[in-house]
């Protein structure tokens, strides 16, 4: 109510502007200069010939096109690469997304001031088929659903449990999600708390211990979460061993499902292996069980580890196993 | 109050009537002429020697004695001086009662000052060494309710809102106030704040306030919502010549979120969290005769803010300063006046830490940059209509200057006494963003040496070509709460991407350019 009330422009059907008035309006402004240049901070975000994929990443990693450290971002980043879509990466946060969650794509601009509509991840599949150079094969939906659930529930829960709730990975959580958001002690504390709460409620929604419960941390049965993840990874390893192409469901080339599995296995191997950990020998079995990277490597007879390596070398050939594979803290 | 038989007593009575409702009637007494004397006889009496024998304050049941002592003790002590005259005494008393009203804990219409001749009471031991009058002063006050709930509507600049408010007054008897507010409005989704404020050293013109706030505001001109959570500590003081200073520290967690689907890449790049930790100084000198419809006088305001530098830390680091001048002059014709206003501001990003020449400097964010244009500032443009635009989003700028000239004319029927005026105006402004070399490719940071040259060229850019200008005419209605304007305007000069309005525009606000 307090802001400007347009009467004259734009012309609407029910308001007829008399011709002389319209003529008067058309003569103004008397002088129009070129537009103002955008602020410095905007420029890296607004120029470029490629569509932009907004993901969780760091400035340096984004510049190199390195894998994102967020499972759903990495899944789609992998899939878009598999489909041969050309894009650039911009580090971002969930706040920037139209859906409230990363990733999303902002198509390239047709003109310098044009604001393209963002494409949410739910439409990435179509987008990849439309703009990609190769189309990854489809997997029969019935079988896919059963295995997709393994990723969406037990494996995801284990990832959430490890990253957000395990004190072992507090430093990692801070480095990936908290520190880039703010340098303030208080803001970081608040964000950490929010993230943990959100992760807990996600685990409780689907995890062992069952139904969505508003109650509390104590209800998360960590052992059960890890046990379910071990079983799920074993099942995936078995499924993979049945394929003779090296990709899931016997597909000729990697599919979206391969990308989904890779998103977790890559992050678990990269961030949660104890290969270089100082705490190696400590109380063997139980501790090792909690290292998701080790669980991935050991699942079945190492099929998942092999799958991860193959896909990684396929998509990030130059730097395989060196820069992006190891977590340089 | 007893009537006094002496001639002096009558004068006292006259003077008493005069300072009844002291705050309302007596204007600020000057050092040497405590009163604008109406007649010479009155003036004579004011020059008669007088002292204060006693001061009593009635009705301040919940107020600490110490607070009142701060005001009234000096009067009793100073007036022992043989040179004091009745005028001096009355002047001091009126000054003290005015101060008392400024604490904001007493009802304005409940004030009564009664002065009686002390000799009358003490007739037995009456022995006047000189012909000095000794006065007993009795001040009656009514305290305001200590707990007040209210609800209503409010107008800020370009925003209307509804609020509920609870005020706890005079909590510890020293004029401390706790005010808790909840509001929602046309652009404010929700806002909560609580302010505890207390006068320091028994002085109503020196106040310390501690505030906590949380709000969520829509910023439609840049397709996002901003959530704020934070607090501030402010020290405000009023100088003897009526200038207002506020010095404060504030720490605010800002979250830029809820982006519209059409949000531009510039806004998307700034989405997320940041903490601003800053010191702000505000100076206001308001010498206008009427803030809503000034016919004479001037307003000068400066705001300076230092954020993130040195020990302040936080996520943003800059020096931001803004100046606003406006003046009005009545013309010899009744009700006709001309006015002019000027605003300018500069936001200079700084490196974090103590260095001023750090390796890299983070450029400003959208929530720190200036916005320009709108019905209450540069009329004839939409809100944030001037300056850099990315798509439909007004992304703000780091340097701006804006000016306006206007003429107010009384309406033929309403006449010069009505709050309604016809307005002719022309205004314009320029808002420019800082450009600079990147510290590294793909990085958001600027090279620090580039910032200085960037600022220089941004300031120079202000004068490149004509500013964006609009002119028009309209009606102004000066309500005591806010000023309403309905204008018809056309843009004369614009820049591509800027959003000018052709036709009618409604403005509601307190502070217009």
TrEMBL record, chain A:
Occurrences of domain Thioredoxin-like fold (ranges): 71-168
GO CC list: SAM complex
Family matches, as InterPro entries: Metaxin_GST (IPR033468), Mito_Protein_Transport_Metaxin (IPR050931), Thioredoxin-like_fold (IPR012336)
Stretches assigned to the Metaxin glutathione S-transferase domain: 231-273
Gene Ontology biological process: mitochondrion organization
PANTHER family in the record: METAXIN RELATED, OUTER MEMBRANE PROTEIN (SAM35), PUTATIVE (AFU_ORTHOLOGUE AFUA_1G13180)-RELATED
Name of this protein: Uncharacterized protein
Annotated source species: Sordaria brevicollis
UniProtKB/TrEMBL annotation, chain B:
UniProt topology in membrane: Multi-pass membrane protein
Major subcellular location class: mitochondrion
Pfam families: Omp85
Ranges where the Bacterial surface antigen (D15) domain occurs: 170-512
Compartment(s) where it occurs, according to its Swiss-Prot or TrEMBL record: Mitochondrion outer membrane
Example GO BP: protein insertion into mitochondrial outer membrane
InterPro entries, sorted: Bac_surfAg_D15, D15-like
Family: Belongs to the SAM50/omp85 family.
Name of the featured protein: Surface antigen-domain-containing protein
Organism: Sordaria brevicollis
